[in-house]
Amino acid sequence: MTVPVKPEEPGTMASRSTLTPARAPHQDAPGGQQPGDGRVGGGLFDPGQLIRSLPDALRKLDPRVMVKSPVMFVVEVGSVLTTVFACTTPTDWFGWTIAAWLWLTVLFANLAEAVAEGRGKAQADTLRKAKTDTVARRLTDGAAERIPGTELRIGDLVVCEAGDIIPGDGDVVDGVASVDESAITGESAPVIRESGGDRCAVTGGTKVLSDRIVIKITTRPGETFIDRMINLVEGAARQKTPNEIALNILLASLTIIFLLAVVTLQPFAIYAGAEQPMIVLLALLVCLIPTTIGALLSAIGIAGMDRLVQRNVLAMSGRAVEAAGDVSTLLLDKTGTITLGNRQAAEFVPVRGTTEAEVADAAQLSSLADETPEGRSIVVLAKEKYGLRERHQGELTGAEWIPFTAQTRMSGVDIDGRKVRKGASGSVIAWVQERGGPVAEDARTLTDAISEAGGTPLLVALEDESGPRVLGVIHLKDVVKEGMRERFVELRRMGIKTVMITGDNPLTAKAIAEEAGVDDFLAEATPEDKMALIKREQAGGKLVAMTGDGTNDAPALAQADVGVAMNTGTSAAKEAGNMVDLDSNPTKLIEIVEIGKQLLITRGALTTFSIANDVAKYFAIIPAMFAVAYPGLDTLNIMRLSSPDSAILSAIIFNALVIVALVPLALKGVRYRPVSADRMLRRNLAVYGLGGLIAPFLGIKLIDLLLSLIPGIG
Amino acid sequence: MSPALAGVLQLTALAAALVLAYRPLGDYMAAVYGAPRHLRVEKVLYRCIGANPDAEMRWPAYLRGVLAFSAAGVLLLYLLQRVQGGLPLSLGFASISPDQAFNTAASFVTNTNWQSYSGEQAMGHVVQTAGLAVQNFVSAATGMAVAVALVRGFARSRTGELGNFWADLVRGTVRVLVPIAVLGALVLVACGAVQNFSGIHEVGQFMGGVQQTNGGAVASQEAIKELGTNGGGYFNANSAHPFENPNAFSNLFEIFLILVIPFALTRTFGKMVGNVKQGYAILATMAAVWLGFTALMMWSEFAHGGPALQAAGAAMEGKETRFGVGSSAIFSVATTLTSTGAVDAFHSSFTAFGGGLQLLGMMLGEIAPGGVGSGLYGMLVMAVIAVFLAGLMVGRTPEYLGKKIGTREIKLAACYLLITPTLVLGFTAASMVLPDALGSMLNTKALGAGPHGFSEVLYAFTSGANNNGSAFAGLNANTPWYNTTIGLAMLLGRFLPMVFVLALAGSLAEQQPVPETAGTLRTEKPLFAGLLVGTILIVTGLTYFPALALGPLAEGLS
């Protein structure tokens, strides 16, 4: 929403309300509250995807690709060496089996990445269909010439009429049209695009349904929004994020440590009189290096972006998704995010000498000609609370209706010699005084009280045989969306401060802020105020997220660490932000933060799991290697594995299978609940730390039991 | 009273004394390193070295100070030993050979105090007092200075400045180490430790034969040897020698001196970063490991597994009857969990598991509580690693004390982590294949003590690279191979980590702190301390498990 500079009067709301987009956010209920856990869970994992992604996984075996993931590159080198050693003793089934499982380990890692990418590819294909070659009608000196869409340059003017596909991204400079943007947003309801204001941006590939518009092209062909979207969902534009790089460094250094431990083991073993076959050492190495997280790391990143795409949010970089997890201040626009778009009548307050029912009756009568949402809400309140049946304009004969206009800021009716009026307090007082009527003293105190409580007072006046007078006050209130208060409590628990941005005066803003439970508010906000607030928070080391759609939001969107532009917004806003919400649902900011956190948690959890796994592998392999030289070391074989060969094989097989087992978790993300850092850490440490310590003991033992059934191993 | 009960009571008394000293000493050190004024004697010293103590240094400058000062120390100490033959008060000892002089110089400048010589048979008064004792002070002060610089990195924001190395060095020496060492020496003299410049006495022995023994400034050197976690004994028998460590009380007092500064530095850390609770969390981590190791060591020594020990009724081989099993166990854990390396018992004679614990203690990187300064910075680097892992699990880019642990920080911490395993495993592996190196083993495979011989070599390099200095004995380390490689291990194991610590400090100091919210990982909570203990044990365990399995485990489980 744009930021109104002045407090909103009902009249301005009325003229605005016709402009609200024709379509509601298509998935979220107001407040977006969905029950319980897994709120940011991803799509379901289809095992068939594994098979479909196999060709891609094989293609990724290219060492030039593998080297980007240091851990898996070491495994690939290990696989090659093992295969070579196996070739030197072709009759040794053990060497061949180890070689096969090492190759499978590499393949499983590639498969995880390929599956993650595959999901994006499907999306990209749909988008490509929208990107059919279009013919543009370029305006030159008033005359339209037909040229291919690919020859358009920035600044060209093109004309589009009903049925045309818009040839490129741009701003409407003339006309108004309804546009079908389902190619991008998946939402079939058309949207209005018109010149001037904040709804002028059109996207190439979308279709004009009615009317005629002139568009000024703002991007080069090949760099349009749809092109960028295709790149993003395909992962072609994927770059490693800062945290991913840091984690890769840690994993690489752990790999070096284990490489060192294994390389130096051979001289130790020679001294102990138990020289080890190279294949066994390679098996030990692969077991020790953090293959689980190394294999799944890029899949986790891709899946994180994908989870956003599934929510119709496009992140322009993985960095922005990561930053979302770190956000500590959320700037939320009041209208549409915290409150429902419009104010609603909450009560009728009579002045001294009148009754509530009288006020209700007059208010209803005078609002029948008011088509604004505020006017409608008065009629609804009168019906629900006072049982006044809604009278239709037609059934009252001889009535002269005075419709609501932004100029008079009043509506009403003249009927049977009675004149009833309702409207902004200033206008109604002026109307009464014009007619020489008194304005009841308590009318002012009542309106002041309502204003102070954050509401908007409307006065109801009546002129009949007893003369003109004020009857009472209608209390209009902003209605906070259901579930918002709970969400803000959750956010606070996650350590995120919420700031409500509104054009309202401070009194109104304060009341709504208190009702919604936000931590802070910025009243009478101008774009400059917003910018200053962001800079102030950032100076304190905080990361700020915000949503915006207007051109005047662009600087703030660019300044914020996470700037989510609404797809309905201007191209300037979309250009400035680092995410675009195709649904234009500002509440989604909260989900974006959760997805960012989930991405980081998944990485941390699987790293911890991977490292904790090593303990069990040592207990399997070290006794297998050295129990012959030092029989005492068989005590370390606490799993009582059946034979040295079986122990080493079981560890390798477990190591490979655990990757496949964890692919769904990597794609879906670790379950995330908004709780305090302490509770989250305790839970994740118990599940992935302790679990990672225990699980391989069980898994390796189980595989060993199965292997020992095969004759010749046990 | 049973020996076990006596051991527990001694441990309790020691812990109580450490608790009493913790706050005053920690607060005092924080005040010293933050003081705006200079003492008169310090001003004289600054003028002598030509340093401006008020100039703030960025990390490269700070590092240059550390390296230049230490290089000068190595050179001076080397020369002093090489010309010993011509020096007065040399007790007639000859100059030291080049490889041993290099080894000893490296050893004392790196706070290791590995000794491939016997003090009473090689070093005269001048080298001992003007060379070795001086390095005991300044090498310890250097470690503390680097730790303080890292703490400043956490405490400061949006500046690359880490303080002034010369000021930190001089203050650590003049205001912290010297006063406590003087008090410590007085206590030790009162207990009966010697302090003189007497020459060599020949004493006739009861069983015939003659024993040579000399005096020296022993008590004063003993005090700083323990206080500065140095460990280089005046005599070869180190703290088992009655001139150095006369009785059970002096023994306990020396353990106290070893532990008091490293533990108290966590308070200094908490004070300097403005949150003493953060210091308590680090303290809790150190204390948990220390107490756990001590308990295991006592259990292992009192249970004295093995047929010979069972027959003797106690694991008294190689232990002093003055101290007994309990006190020796406490001493050996304290000396290997810090970078001290002083011994009051023969480490090689501990039970196999006991020896394994000593090895593992050093392999942890000597961080519980670790050497003066080096323990704190080592622990903080481990905390950075733990925060990185755990921080991700709370859904934020990891941060510690408000500083983000990003690519640069994790790169530096990872490099730090790589150094000692590379040195220890690399040199040990080389020694296992070189015939010359193998020949130094007293317990070779041929003599039926394969794993023990391996443990001796592993211990030597672990001790050297971690700057501990204690020896498993049984290994003739005075050969060109061991003198040179252990010397290199000591130098690289001391100064490479300092390079990364100071770079890390510089990187942290430049950052703008992130304010703490409910979503921030609480690093002052017991949960984090537990996580830190787990990270340390798992990272070390995974690195050294194969080596430990072929050494102490193979021996102990047979």
From TrEMBL, chain A:
Task: Give any GO molecular function from the UniProt entry.
Answer: ATP binding
Give start-end positions of Gly residues composition bias: 33-45
Fetch the PANTHER family from UniProt. Answer: POTASSIUM-TRANSPORTING ATPASE ATP-BINDING SUBUNIT
Superkingdom of the organism of origin: Bacteria
Compartments, as annotated in UniProt: Cell membrane
Give the InterPro entries listed for this entry. ATPase_P-typ_cyto_dom_N, ATPase_P-typ_P_site, ATPase_P-typ_TM_dom_sf, ATPase_P-typ_transduc_dom_A_sf, ATPase_P-type_domA, HAD-like_sf, HAD_sf, P-type_ATPase_bsu_IA
**Organism the protein comes from:** Streptomyces kronopolitis
Supply the HAMAP family for this chain.
Answer: KdpB
Protein name in UniProt: Potassium-transporting ATPase ATP-binding subunit
Q: Which protein family is named in the record?
A: Belongs to the cation transport ATPase (P-type) (TC 3.A.3) family. Type IA subfamily.
Q: What is its EC number?
A: 7.2.2.6
Q: State the membrane topology.
A: Multi-pass membrane protein
Question: Which residue spans traverse the membrane?
Answer: 93-112, 245-272, 278-302, 615-633, 648-667, 687-710
Automatic annotation (TrEMBL), chain B:
The keyword Ion transport belongs to this UniProt entry's keyword annotation: yes
Q: Which Pfam families match?
A: KdpA
Q: State the compartments where it is located.
A: Cell membrane
What are the alphabetically sorted keywords of the record? Cell membrane, Ion transport, Membrane, Potassium, Potassium transport, Transmembrane, Transmembrane helix, Transport
What are the transmembrane regions?
Answer: 61-80, 176-197, 248-268, 280-299, 376-394, 415-434, 486-506, 527-549
**How is this protein positioned relative to the membrane?**
Multi-pass membrane protein
Q: Give the family from UniProt.
A: Belongs to the KdpA family.
Its biological purpose: Part of the high-affinity ATP-driven potassium transport (or Kdp) system, which catalyzes the hydrolysis of ATP coupled with the electrogenic transport of potassium into the cytoplasm. This subunit binds the extracellular potassium ions and delivers the ions to the membrane domain of KdpB through an intramembrane tunnel.
**Quaternary structure, from the entry:** The system is composed of three essential subunits: KdpA, KdpB and KdpC.
Output this protein's name: Potassium-transporting ATPase potassium-binding subunit
